[in-house]
Amino acid sequence: xxxxxxxxxxxxxxxxxxxxxxxxxxxxxxxxxxxxxxxxxxxxxxxxxxxxxxxxxxxxxxxxxxxxxxxxxxxxxxxxxxxxxxxxxxxxxxxxxxxxxxxxxxxxxxxxxxxxxxxxxxxxxxxxxxxxxxxxxxxxxxxxxxxxxxxxxxxxxxxxxxxxxxxxxxxxxxxxxxxxxxxxxxxxxxxxxxxxxxxxxxxxxxxxxxxxxxxxxxxxxxxxxxxxxxxxxxxxxxxxxxxxxxxxxxxxxxxxxxxxxxxxxxxxxxxxxxxxxxxxxxxxxxxxxxxxxxxxxxxxxxxxxxxxxxxxxxxxxxxxxxxxxxxxxxxxxxxxxxxxxxxxxxxxxxxxxxxxxxxxxxxxxxxxxxxxxxxxxxxxxxxxxxxxxxxxxxxxxxxxxxxxxxxxxxxxxxxxxxxxxxxxxxxxxxxxxxxxxxxxxxxxxxxxxxxxxxxxxxxxxxxxxxxxxxxxxxxxxxxxxxxxxxxxx
Length: 489
Hints:
This protein has helices spanning about 10-20, 30-40, 45-55, 60-70, 90-100, 125-130, 130-160, 160-165, 170-180, 200-210, 215-230, 245-265, 285-295, 300-310, 315-325, 350-355, 380-385, 390-410, 430-440, 450-465, 480-485; strands spanning about 80-90, 105-110, 190-200, 275-280, 340-350, 365, 420-430. Among the domains are: about 10-80, no CATH class; about 285-335, no CATH class. Helices cover about 50% and strands about 10% of the residues. It is of the alpha+beta class.
């Protein structure tokens, strides 16, 4: 066995300094790695020698990449070339579009830990319709109320947690608790920044999809992202223009859906929205998980394992599941067999909650637009300090501005909505992914909004697959769950 380090991330400024000192150096591109790895399947030379050859002949490496990735269609070769991107001055609304790309990595500026100032995006669509002044007045009123909320919430948080407040080391954490509830009044135009890591295959997809996005900010992001990367790996990024499919499909669906729903007499319910509803779960989920466990632990075909799982005694079934959990610790994930059963949830979530939910990219998230008709999420702490009424008054003012913008430029109207406003989310995930979400989001250290959501999801999911989810919960309750299920251990 031989393991050779082929490369690692370097800050681009470091690369530029080296290039400035060595103008003749031409191999500062991730394309050489892609070219070398592409040749592994057909060239018997050791891969480190293939890399050396690619570095010596960059243009030849680029031609090879173009032939293999685009002519032969082996797109996975482009995944070996990776970029790290700083993204600054974008709106929280655009961040939702950016983070739809599930195979990229993101670290985002958190409104839970950073005290926000008056930084926000004024969309071109709003400027060009003469609504910038009204938009700006509303945003500044929201931001002023945010600071007013924070000033009221911090003493309340400190008073509620006297033991923690006694130690200066906890001050930042307690301030964060106040900030995270005050932020519910901040709008989706608030500026954000993030660090992003993605390979060139996903870079090309992001460029193309966001070039088709109806928001001008998204299209400008696509243009600037292309400009920042186009000279680095030109052989791996080719199809960046918006396609007819990406531009038209959503609009076509809205049009025909509106017709079909109109014929059926469908209309939004007048009653308050149900926040969490388990819409569907794999039938006989525990039996199917048991069959998958038997299949992986034997040499039997699946159909025979399914028959055994369906007819096994309850004690044997429970013993089978417990065997898969017995050695588990709070940081361990369930076996991959647990991916064989699915759940589908119909959720109504605040923008603040969705900012966290969207990070679980291995789940399938299909979202509607933000809808003021779904009411708003009011943090309990805001009610506790007597600020719910002025909070709702600010929401009403926000929705007046939203309606004014919606009549002129509907697509830009969501920018003025706040972290408290809600939208519907269709979420499909397997049981193993629900374990991951529960460990992180049902834990007592999690933000209260998503913790509340996850708790409701778990309660409904356990009814559908109690054995499959017997150890699902936050990290803080793992020990208790273990004692309940393994009392003699």
